[in-house]
Design brief:
Layout (H helix, E strand, L loop, with lengths): L2 H20 L9 E4 L2 H4 L4 E4 L15 E4 L14 H13 L5 E5 L2 H8 L18 E4 L11 H8 L4 E4 L3 E6 L2 H22 L9 H10 L11 H14 L6
Parallel strand pairs: 5-6
Antiparallel strand pairs: 1-2, 1-4, 2-3, 4-7, 6-7
Helix pairs in contact: 1-8, 3-5, 4-6, 6-8
């Protein structure tokens, strides 16, 4: 196996364990996908995805499934791929050149905000770091129809934090750690909003302050590591629990 593919497999498997550790799982459903580098594929669009039927805590570097843009299995994996999972991921990987990694969750806080009329409100420290970064896509049912892809891409534009209305959260990025940092910030924003609104009205954050917070936030910027330090710290924690994902 090419060393770059091995590295991508280990990083993605670690991310599945981090999600499990954080409670960002939905039984055997939802997905984190990464595109394999050209050094491995020769320029072909190939991806790694979790085996359908395994919990995130069971995902390892070796049982990740290699697929093409159509979701067809390219290796000798005995595990199937969930078509409802890769439809959205395929549209984003294919339509957004910078989308190396795509993450999707159904957390309670994320789905709750996705189901609320006003969506994410500019009322807390975390939403203020996502000024003009959040896109919305209307619910069209279970995501198994490829014709939804162009509409999804129009909804997203170039925004890397996405709220799928009535459905959940999604993030995409140039690297896995950057994508994780965006999703973590979006998830925290939803958690704080859920807690705040349960107590009554929230104090709004002005447009000017939110714009400044997003400009000053460094965790998404490639020039400042793009979430690498945050993700590495969580991987070390996952390693202390169980490092079998590496194999």
């Amino acid at each position: 196996m090419h060393q770059d593919e091995r590295a991508a497999r280990q990083q993605l498997a670690a991310c599945y364990r981090v999600f499990a550790m954080l409670g960002w799982t939905e039984m055997i459903y939802n997905h984190i996908t990464v595109r394999l580098p050209d050094s491995v594929t020769g320029g072909a669009k190939q991806f790694l995805i979790n085996p359908f039927g395994l919990h995130y805590s069971e995902v390892t570097a070796s049982n990740l499934v290699k697929i093409d843009i159509e979701g067809q299995v390219l290796d000798d994996s005995r595990w199937p791929v969930n078509p409802a999972g890769f439809t959205v991921h395929a549209a984003i990987h294919d339509g957004l050149p910078g989308a190396h990694c795509v993450m999707h969750t159904h957390t309670t806080a994320g789905v709750a905000v996705a189901c609320s009329q006003g969506g994410l409100q500019q009322t807390n420290f975390y939403t203020a770091q996502l000024h003009d970064m959040v896109a919305y896509h209307d619910f069209e049912g279970i995501t198994i129809h490829a014709d939804e892809g162009p509409r999804l891409l129009r909804s997203i534009g170039q925004r890397q934090a996405v709220i799928l209305r009535n459905h959940g959260l999604l993030a995409w990025g140039q690297t896995l750690p950057q994508t994780f940092a965006i999703l973590w910030t979006l998830q925290r924003a939803c958690e704080i909003q859920l807690a705040t609104f349960s107590m009554g009205a929230a104090i709004p954050v002005s447009e000017e302050i939110a714009r400044r917070c997003t400009r000053d936030a460094l965790q998404f910027s490639p020039a400042h590591g793009a979430g690498q330090d945050m993700f590495a710290a969580l991987v070390r924690q996952a390693d202390r629990i169980d490092d079998s994902y590496k194999y």
